[in-house]
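Quick start: what a row looks like.
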Amino acid sequence: MKAELEQIRKEAEQALARIDNLQDLSNFRVEYLGKKGKLTQILRGMGKLSAEERPQIGQLANQIRAYLEEEIEKKRKVLEEEALNQRLRDEVIDVTMPGRRHYRGKLHPLNIVLNEIKDIFLGMGFEIAEGPEVEWDYYNFEALNIPKNHPARDTQDTFYITENILLRTHTSPTQIRVMERQKPPIKIIVPGRVYRSDAVDATHSPIFHQVEGLVIDRNITMGDLKGVLDVFAKEMFGPQTRTQFRPHHFPFTEPSAEMDVSCTTCGGKGCRVCSYTGWIEILGAGMVHPKVLKHGGIDPEKYSGFAFGMGLDRITNLKYGIDDIRLLFENDIRFLEQF
């Protein structure tokens, strides 16, 4: 057995000298010193030795084990240093080369226009209010003077979750929520996402954005509504912009109107964009219906108010000449990097 131990030592020295990487060194340790290694296998046969031979063989085996462990550790340090030096050579950086350009992100066109809208109305003394996108039927319809049999409650137009819970179809429910917790004077805009069951095409999307406006105080008139919206139109589309109001019907306002602006493309002369009328519709508005005021806990005998609602997507398309609403949602970098 002594001769076998000496032979293992000799073989190990020769094998260790040939190793040139850390993985092979790890394999070498397992091969000679592991639980099933060559040295361990020989030591398992010590039970066959006489009592006089065991101490001698055990001492020799321990010496060989200690020697190999010491040599393995020396080899490991050498190989790690060589690997580090090789890595430094391979990964050298030429600090004189120009760096890679970092591209800064940009705001989405919807956010750009929304920020402009906020600035315009904040400048006129409005505050910004928010409401939930998952809404009660009461706030979305009933409190806004839309009874149970109104067409807007058709499941073809609205995403119902339960009979009384739905995805809001407009930002108007926030009007009621604000009136419930705040008494006049009230002067707010309500931006946010809304949902309707529309098929996707160039002008429709099941998800889009609105900006609602509400003013309630004593002696508020239609003239105040027109003045505020006229200022908004000129600030958004330019001082040359003209506005006009056309009678319309909304269940939550009375009287109601739709507002047009002079075509942003032709300036009102008539073109394909405005169907050669010179005008483009941008929003609906009107005086807050007395029933809506009552639902909000406000006495319509003492207070009056006006409300308006615009599609943020439509305003964005008009401002930038975008002819397809789908471009706002597809996240095509070739489109977005233009803004």
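That is the whole record. The first helix runs from residue 2 to 18. The two ends are 84 Å apart (CA to CA).
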